[in-house]
């Protein structure tokens, strides 16, 4: 496996070299060079913000094709809670689950069901007082990757539990193997993803050696196939797949849903990558007190705001509230100890120093000093015209040997204006 796998890809033919993406990337992972955007793989966290903001549709998420369903003897759909919020006037989740089986899946295992189990496990761990407070949710893979590369001091606060999609895949395959007699290698767990970060999480997971998710398809690809099937099943009275999740599980689809499942008011929930960064910075500076749990979602509104969804995130959030209103609080009350293999991490989360200037401390300090010198020579406008997101980012690129200070149009102009002035003076003297 490559050190950095990414589901967010750039289509250079569509890229116009505008600077919209570089200004919004939370880890400064994009540059514009030779009139084309360039994604720095070591910095990208696959949050999908560049996909959302690109006016030319030059960024896209690479998912598996729907044909992956046929690659296994037994395929299981893993629908997220946010999928239920994509349909108008949906009051019965069973319709979506039945449509997935009609579409071609052999079985369905709701991620909402696994979310309730993760909520129960989190409550139990926090009640034991064995976790450093405040505990940071590990559910959003874009956030965990952000912490891993930018906030190393907060790594110990990240909840060491698998995200619901991973728990769902492991439980689904184990149950299917017991029911069918097939080996788990012939059973495919296919996640229906609302965002590119979850694609990356299955290919290059954090906290585990290998993901049990065998494929990831986009909500936007599945949605148009499901809609007519749902209408058909309802008209024929063939809605036969009952939901196995309650209000706690379905609530995970929007911001603060995970936190509400803790049945504890001592939490903070933030969504949108810029707000997430602000919270992490304040947490790192010890400005946040009296909070036991922090839920962070890179997408605005939570998973309903994922770029692979089809519905407006705020409308989707309203739909989710309507769906969960009639549900029981929870349908899953597991013995957490029996699910240790499904729930717990088996590898430690480690800092990846992709932003360090040099592994040698003295050399790094010298480079930092040089960066400060270069920044003092620039205008400080952070305009992005140089192809870097900020003046400091350009200075860092110069020190790394990836750019020239003359890439700054203002510096270049002032430099040549000075040269012209000197030439004029020389001609006057002569």
Tell me about this structure.
The protein is α/β, with parallel strands linked by helices and 430 residues long. It folds into three domains: 1-62, Alpha-Beta Plaits (2-Layer Sandwich), CATH 3.30.70; 66-343, no CATH class; 361-430, 3-methyladenine DNA Glycosylase II, Chain A, domain 3 (Orthogonal Bundle). It is 41% helix and 10% strand. It contains 16 helices and eleven strands. It has helices at 20-24, 49-53, 93-103, 111-128, 141-150, 164-180, 196-203, 219-236, 247-251, 257-260, 273-284, 313-324, 340-343, 361-377, 391-399, 409-429, and strands at 8-10, 30-33, 36-39, 59-61, 74-78, 107-108, 135-136, 187-193, 215-218, 267-271, 293-297. Strands 6-5-8-9 form a four-stranded parallel sheet, with helices on both faces. Strands 7-11-10 form a three-stranded parallel sheet, covered by helices on one side. The protein has a two-stranded antiparallel sheet with strand order 1-4. β8, α7 (196-203) and β9 form a beta-alpha-beta unit. α3 crosses α8 (219-236) and α14 (361-377) packs across α15 (391-399). It starts with 7 loop residues before the first strand and ends with a helix. The mean pLDDT is 93.
């Amino acid at each position: 496996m490559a050190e950095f796998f990414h589901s967010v890809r750039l289509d250079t033919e569509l890229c116009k070299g505008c600077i919209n993406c570089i200004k919004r990337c939370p880890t400064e992972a994009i540059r514009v060079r030779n009139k084309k955007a360039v994604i720095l793989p070591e910095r990208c966290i696959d949050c999908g913000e560049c996909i959302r903001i690109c006016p030319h549709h030059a960024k896209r998420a690479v998912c598996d094709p729907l044909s992956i369903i046929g690659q296994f003897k037994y395929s299981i759909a893993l629908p997220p809670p946010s999928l239920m919020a994509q349909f108008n006037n949906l009051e019965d989740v069973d319709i979506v689950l039945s449509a997935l089986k009609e579409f071609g899946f052999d079985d369905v295992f709701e991620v909402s069901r696994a979310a309730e189990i993760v909520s129960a496990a989190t409550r139990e761990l926090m009640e034991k007082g064995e976790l450093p407070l405040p505990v940071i949710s590990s559910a959003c893979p874009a956030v965990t990757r952000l912490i891993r590369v930018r906030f190393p001091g907060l790594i110990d606060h990240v909840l060491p539990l698998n995200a619901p999609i991973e728990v769902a895949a492991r439980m689904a395959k184990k149950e299917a193997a017991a029911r069918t007699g097939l080996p788990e290698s012939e059973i495919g767990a296919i996640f229906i993803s609302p965002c590119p970060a979850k694609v990356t999480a299955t290919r290059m997971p954090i906290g585990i050696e290998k993901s049990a998710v065998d494929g990831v398809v986009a909500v936007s690809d599945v949605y148009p196939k499901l809609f007519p099937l749902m209408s058909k099943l309802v008209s024929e009275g063939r809605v036969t797949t009952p939901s196995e999740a309650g209000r706690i599980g379905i609530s995970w689809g929007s911001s603060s849903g995970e936190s509400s499942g803790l049945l504890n008011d001592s939490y903070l929930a933030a969504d949108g990558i810029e707000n997430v960064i602000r919270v992490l910075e304040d947490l790192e500076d010890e400005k946040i007190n009296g909070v036991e749990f922090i839920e962070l979602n890179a997408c605005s509104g939570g998973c309903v705001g994922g770029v692979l969804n089809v519905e407006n995130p705020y409308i989707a959030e309203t739909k989710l509230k309507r769906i969960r209103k009639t549900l029981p609080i929870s349908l899953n009350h597991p013995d957490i100890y029996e699910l240790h293999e499904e729930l717990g991490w088996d590898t430690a989360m480690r800092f990846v120093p992709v932003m360090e200037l040099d592994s040698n401390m003295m050399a790094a300090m010298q480079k930092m000093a040089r960066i400060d010198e270069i920044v003092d020579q620039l205008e400080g406008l952070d305009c992005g015209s140089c192809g870097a997101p900020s003046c400091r980012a350009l200075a860092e690129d110069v020190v790394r040997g990836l750019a020239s200070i003359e890439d700054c149009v203002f510096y270049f102009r002032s430099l040549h204006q000075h040269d012209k002035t000197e030439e004029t003076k020389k001609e006057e003297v002569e």
